[in-house]
Structure formats: C-alpha cells, structure tokens
Amino acid sequence: MISESAGSVREAALKYLWMHNRSWVQTGEEGGPRVITGGDGVKVVDSEGRTWIDVNGGYNSVNVGYGRSEIACAAYDQMRRIAFYPVGTAIPPTVELCERLAGITPGTLSRVFPVSGGSEANETALKIARAHARRIGEPGRYKVISREGSYHGATGGVLWLGSSAVYRRQDFEPAYPGMVYAPQPNPYRCPLGGRTPSECAERCARAVEDLILFHGPETVLAFIGEPVAIPTGAAVPGDEYWPMIRDICSRYGVLLIDDEVICGFGRTGRWFGIEHWDVAPDIMTMSKGISSSYLPLGAAVVSREVADLFVGKDRSLAHVFTSAGHPVAAAAGLKNIDVIESEGLVQNAAEVGAYLKDQLEGMKADHPIIGDVRGLGLLAAVELVGDRKTKARLEDQDRVCERLSEKFEERGLLLRSSRGLIAMGPPLCITRAEVDEIVHAVDVSLWEVEGELGFPGNV
Ligand SMILES: Cc1ncc(COP(=O)(O)O)c(C=O)c1O
C-alpha cells in the first residue's frame, strides 16, 4: 500500500510505475514525477499544495475541466445499481450513449461500437474497414493512407498510421502491411510548396488521389486523418481539403475515417472538427472528450451504409473487448455530454478559443522568435523559428524549448514546449481571465529565454 505522503508516492512511482514515453531514471533525476492530488476547472493541485494551470487539460482530454462531482455521482450511481453485465446482454447507459452519439454525429453515422480509448477506436475502425472490403467482394483492398506527422494511437496496428515525431517506431518493426503516407496539409510549411492555405489544401488532397491511383484503387481500403492535426501543432488545413478528400474517397471506394479523438466533443468550437467543413465520414473515431477522461471511454461510429453490410448470416464482425462500452464509463460519458451541452462549452471553446488565438497573435509584434500562431477553437499552437522571413527552424531548438518549459513551470503552467512548438488544448470551461494568465506567463517566459540566449531584437 502506498502511503499518502508525496515523497513515498514519488519513490514508489520511480520504482514501480512505467511512465508514458519517458525513462523513470531521467524522471527521477529531474526531481519528478510531480504528484497530483486534486483539481478544479483548469487547475490542479500537487502534493506540496502548489496550484498549476493544466494548459493541456490532461492529454487534451479533460474537456469539462477537473472536479465535476456530477460525473463522479453518475458513475457511482451506476456502479451501485450494477457495475457490469452478462455476456450477450445490453445495459442502459451503454445503449443510451450509443443513441446519443448517433444523434450528435453528422451524416448517417449511427451504428456505434463503444471502446475504452482512442487506439481501440482506431483499431476497431481498421478492422471494420477490412471486414467491409470483404463483404463488398473487394478483399484486395488493404492499404490505408494516413498523413506524415500524424498520430492515431499506440497499439500494434494503429501505431503505423501517421509518423508522429514524438513516437519512435523502430522498436516495433516490422510494420503493419499496407501503410501509405500522404503529405500533411500544414499551410505554414506546405510540403508541396503551396503558397496559400487553399493551394496547400488542393495540392495535398490531390496527392491523396495520386497515391490511390499509383497504388491502384482496388488495393486501397481507407484514408484516416484528424480534422486538425495535433502533432504538427494544430495545423488547420485550407477549406478545400476535407471536401476534396471526401470526394476522392467516394470516387475510388475508399472509406474515410475521421479521427476525432482530440478534435471531438467541442474542442474546435463545433461538436466535431469535421463539421467545420460540412463533411460526413464513413467512420468517426472518438475518445478523450467523450468522458473528459473521467473514465476510459471511446467509440467508433459507423455510417448506416457500412454497418448494413454486417447484417445477415456469417456477416457479423468478430470483435470484442471485455471492457468496451463499460456501463460505468458510459454513465460518466453521458453526464459529461450533459455538462458540455448545459454549459454551452462548445460555444465557449469557439469564443474563448478565438480570444486565445488573438492574444497569442498579439505577442508576435514583441517576439520575432514567433513564426506562426495557429489553431481552431481551443486547440492552439505557437511555432518558434530562427528567422520569421525564411521560416528557418531555430538552430538550438531543443535547448530553447527546454528553457521555455522550465520558465513555464516557474510560472505555474503545466505546459511543455518541444520540437519548436508550444501547443495548447485547455479544458473547454476556461475563462478569458485564465487565458490572460497563460498568455502573460508565456509572454514573460519568451522574453526571458530570448534575453538569456541573446536573440536579435531582444538583447
Ligand atoms: C488523434 C489521436 N488518435 C488516437 C489517439 C490514441 O488514443 P489513446 O491514447 O486513448 O489510445 C490519440 C492519443 O493522443 C490521438 O491524439
């Protein structure tokens, strides 16, 4: 049994806990891990009693903010009523959640496979896509197009989608077969030389068509992307991109999988990110904001047209996770959706998100190191550069980011800068005053780091 005291929790963590994406020895040498004991809204408290702003709300996931006792009560009530269910039966909160998701997702998305996280949601989508190809008599379709720099999860199949730089994959070779990579429509650094967001969007969408034609449409199963790609720093594609991708997928019989694991549940100022472009995917995957991380939950929501092919003798999908659609998590998810609705958090994300972006934009005049400010709703990113005109990356990018992260910490922000980016995805209940606190702390931190490292214009 771990005692409550911070020291012993930290010690036990260093001895027993395998932390995400980091070495326990290095974590210990840096004085970590920090032990968190409470939270309210956008703030958390550590075991020393210090309050922090959690600028990325968990893993861009605590959409309604910390400390929602109504969600805890919903989970508690369900667990007291009945915590699980017998094989082959259904249970109210899980069914109700599916119905609710069918109601808020676009197009004919309506058949819901509930899961426990984003990786499971995307694995489920890939399996449905493969099984779908067989059911339409096109078993030769197995290739999946994802975008360079994207991330779609950590499990055996989906870890090969995208190529996020934060995720080293050499350890896990060989790759899942049929992974094909398309350029990322990042207007600030268009990989195809597009000079405007529209030009970049059109070139990157056409590149997807070229890939389909190059590989042969009869071999291509699906395309997967996030409406706004997070690992590249909230790069918002030009308006042409998603409608063109929808057309291209439809033309060649390629399923469009929309990964809303981060963008969903109000994050971008709409219920789902893809709605900014009026596009309905064939499969939508979701997690994080679905329960605001109060309990593990996710879903793959499938269009009627695709789901209908799984009806009939020997046509059902062989796919099960014991905890998928857990009724306690579903009850928490339903209450979480209630909170998002009743407090107008989607609208708040749109309004306060625009304010956050404006404030970050405002810092550009003082900080030549800022190359770009981008984002949508409460997804925002600042890209730091060595030269704003040429967009050359910072020479000493890692050191600058490390220094900045230390400065953020000194000012009470749980926020890390890496790969030349400062990326933010706070809870959707954030206020303008809290945005001001964050922006002020970032502003002062930039001044200090620029001064210490002798950046031109700031020495
Ligand atoms: C876009 C996207 N998809 C999928 C995942 C995987 O979700 P999980 O970590 O819940 O498995 C993530 C995780 O950050 C994500 O950002």
Question: Would you mind describing this structure in some detail?
Answer:
Strand 1 and strand 2 form a beta hairpin. The chain folds into 2 domains: 34-64 and 344-453, Aspartate Aminotransferase, domain 1 (Alpha-Beta Complex); 70-342, Aspartate Aminotransferase, domain 2 (3-Layer(aba) Sandwich). It has 459 residues and is an alpha/beta fold. The longest helix has 22 residues, at 432-453. The protein has 13 helices and 16 strands. The strands form 3 sheets. The protein has a 7-stranded mixed β-sheet with strand order 4-10-9-8-7-5-6, sandwiched between helices. Strands 11, 12, 13, 15 and 16 form a 5-stranded antiparallel β-sheet that branches. It has a 4-stranded mixed β-sheet with strand order 1-2-3-14. It is globular.
What attributes does this structure have?
binds pyridoxal-5'-phosphate, Aspartate Aminotransferase, domain 1, Aspartate Aminotransferase, domain 2, single chain, seven-stranded mixed β-sheet, alpha/beta, 459 residues
How many helical stretches?
13
Ligand list: pyridoxal-5'-phosphate
Which whole number gives the mean pLDDT? 95
What would CATH call the architecture of the largest domain? Answer: 3-Layer(aba) Sandwich
Number of strands: 16
Question: Segments where pLDDT lies below 50 for 5+ residues?
Answer: none
Shape: globular
CATH homologous superfamily descriptor of the largest domain? Type I PLP-dependent aspartate aminotransferase-like (Major domain)
What is the CATH topology classification name of the largest domain? Aspartate Aminotransferase, domain 2
Q: End-to-end span in angstroms?
A: 53 Å
Largest sheet, spatial ordering of strands: 4-10-9-8-7-5-6
